[in-house]
Amino acid sequence: ADGSRTASTGGRGAPPSPSRRAVLSRAASWVWPLTPRPVVVHPFRPPAGPYGPGHRGVDLAAGPGGPVRSPAPAVVSFAGLVAGRGVVVLDHGGGIRSTLEPVTDWLPVGTAVGAGDRVAVLAAEGRHCG
Questions:
Q1: Opening angle at CA 36, ends 46 and 41, nearest 5
Q2: Residue 117 in contact with residue 73, Cβ under 8 Å?
Q3: pLDDT tens, position by position, for the chain (130 residues)?
């Protein structure tokens, strides 16, 4: 799973989002998107500027075919292919989103999920992390 930015449909039809502060205050109850708790292969490394080099996501070690779960309550705001790779974007409200990839067999846009609910299946894809 990778937390990099992708296109989003904007969550049309979703209920009003809680404030960013409310979302972040619930962060302690977030769960890992893979079970068992995965090894972090490449951590987040913020860029020096908006277009500078960096690693805007977190790469987790896992084998294909396992369930990919929502790390917190959310609404699926995007689910589809981006550059040939399956991507699911979860809108947690308050401007907080999780992007999960590479995935297949994802839930439809607009689906509300709880923390730990299955949103997709990890795809067999070796272009990014090997």
A1: 30
A2: no
A3: 444 333 333 444 444 455 656 655 555 689 999 999 999 999 999 999 999 998 888 999 999 999 999 999 999 999 999 999 999 999 999 999 999 999 999 999 999 999 999 999 999 875 555 5
Q: Which residues of 1-36 are buried (b: 16+ CB within 10 A; e: fewer)?
A: bbbeebeebebeebeebeeeeebeebeeebeebbee
Residue 121's SS3 state is strand
| CA 111 vs CA 22, 55, 70, 89, 107: distances in Å | 21, 29, 11, 11, 7
Residue with tokens 């790390």: 71
Closest CA to 113 of 67, 76, 68: 76
